[in-house]
Amino acid sequence: MMVRATIRVYGEVQGVGFRAWVARKASKLGLAGYVENRPEGYLLIVVEGDRDRVEQLLEECRRGPPLARVERVDVEWGEYKGDFEGFEVRYSELELPR
User: Taking phi first (over 0 means left), then psi (-120 to 50 degrees means alpha), and beta for anything else, what does residue 17 get?
Assistant: First the structure.
């Protein structure tokens, strides 16, 4: 069953390589979507794909990469829309090279 999930990861999750780590895990699982740091201090992941694989990614996010300290993970399940072709890391304007 194909699904969409909006995942918010809270804790020490910015500046620790979490986005690249999520992108590698999601791509390996064949999932599509994006990950970005939010100015409020959490990590936002919007992902689509097979529910079992999305749940695998969710479990990985509860642990996080070695330098992260995950305090809480919230997930909202939704209908699959097919909006994405691959998985990407989104950067804020301040992070992009000039």
Answer: left
37 a catalytic residue: yes
Question: Which one is catalytic: 19, 63, 69, 72?
Answer: 19
For residue 42, the tally of other CB atoms under 10 A from its CB is 19
Residue of 4, 8, 24, 37 marked catalytic? 37
State whether CATH 1.10.1740.10 applies to domain 2-74. no
pTM above 0.85, yes or no: yes
Is 8 one of the annotated active-site residues of the chain? no
* Per-residue pLDDT reduced to its tens digit, 47-93: 999 999 999 999 999 999 999 999 999 999 999 999 999 999 998 76
